[in-house]
Amino acid sequence: MSVVNLATESCHLNSGCGFPAPSADIFFLEPYATLSIGGMDFTISKAVILVTIVALVVTAFFMAAFRAPKLVPGKLQSLGEQAYLFVRDQIGREVIGKDGDRFVPFLTTLFFFVWMSNLMGVIPGAQFPVMSNLAFPVSLTLIVFITYLVLGFKHQGVHFVLDAAFPPGVPKLMYILLTPLELLQLFVTRPVTQAIRLFANMFAGHLLITTFTVGAWYLLSPSLIGALGSATSFLVTVVLTGFEMFIQGLQAFIFTLLTAVYIGGSLHAEH
Amino acid sequence: MKANDAEFPTSADGRQTDDMAWRSVSTLTAGMLLYGGLGWLIGKRFGHQSAYMAAGLILGICLGLYVTYKRVTRGSR
To answer: Which of A99, A219, A224, A237 is deepest in the core (most CB within 10 A)?
Structure first.
């Protein structure tokens, strides 16, 4: 990566070297191995390895927690139960209602998968939020959106689309203008905004942290401005990392909450 | 809605509030995309492209706000 190269080549203030500002390039990871099966690209990069680790960790945690459930739970089991109950009470029952309980396993998996993927952005050594690569949020959103459509048609039939396409309490003539808008909203912008919200938050946070980290290294030089600037930049990096960890949890929560809102909307018609 | 109901919102109320909050974002985006894009296309054909696109964007925002307003007020009655 260019930023890393510039930073290691003792590129500092007053050494005739411009600030190696990180750009979107840092999100295009160098492939470890290129692989093509039947014309499809299966390149192995850091993001692929991280997402595999995340999937394994989340699976292993919940399997270990609930493999042999006891009436008086041990430490691991009670941690797993708290995780599950958090999603059930804060998202499942709060948003979908009592009949949302059967979707809680899906929501719990989604929440912890997204959260752990985001957390990879601040874990030393990994330091790449998987969800800052647009393909991952898009894949998750597709799973959610297809679930939403299937459940909607199953429980409400054609009314699922008709209710959305023809908002009530509107003069009939307005449907000419409003129906295309509402259909576009339902089928295009709704899933797109869900994916982009997660992607953009992780992208921006990672870029911000990288900028201040590179800044702290670049400004490190034997001058008052350099020393002060470097110290400030380092401090901001630490603060931003803490803030970013909050955002990572929040975005995972919002992604899961939206999923629950959609599932709830597909189960029950609006009144 | 009775006063004592309002103190304990059911999950349906909570969901519709959440749904409305997130839906407004995608409705406004859809309005701008659809009518801004339509204006852009009309302008491409007949000239004055930026004027048509601006008019389309404003129309799209207005329609998005209108439909959001209609859906919200219906829920609170």
So the answer is: A219
User: Which class for B1: exposed (0-12), middle (13-18), buried (19 or more C-beta within 10 A)?
Assistant: exposed
B11–A264 CB contact, under 8 Å: yes
- Residue B29's CB is within 10 A of a number of other CB atoms, namely 20
Q: Note the pLDDT of residue A74.
A: 83
**Tokens 């709060």 sit at which residue?**
A94
Taking each helix axis as running N to C, give the angle between helix A224-267 and helix A104-119, from 0 to 180 degrees, rounded to the nearest 10. Answer: 170
Pair type for strands A40-41 and A36-37? antiparallel
How far is residue B55's CA from residue B58's CA, in Å, rounded to a whole number?
Answer: 5
Kindly state the average pLDDT of the residues A197-211. 94
The pLDDT of A28-35, averaged and rounded, is 83
pLDDT at B1: 43
Lowest mean pLDDT among A148-152, A257-261, B35-39, B69-73: B69-73
Nearest-by-CA chain B residue for A99: B11
Candidates B15, B29, B62: best to mutate against A (most CBs of A within 10 A) is B15
A197, two tokens: 């919200």
∠A174-A180-A183 over CA atoms, to 5°?
Answer: 120
For A35, the 3-state DSSP assignment is coil
- Tell me if chain A has a CB within 8 Å of the CB of B76: no
Average pLDDT, stretch A169-178? 89
Give chain B's count of helices (H) and strands (E).
3, 0
A96 CB within 8 Å of a chain B CB: yes
Assess B29–A contact: CB distance below 8 Å, yes or no.
yes
B64 in Cβ contact with B32 (< 8 Å): yes
Rounded to two decimals, the ipTM of the complex is 0.78
Chain A interface includes B44 (CB < 8 A): no
Are A45 and A257 contacting, i.e. CB atoms less than 8 angstroms apart? no
**DSSP assignment letter at A33:** B
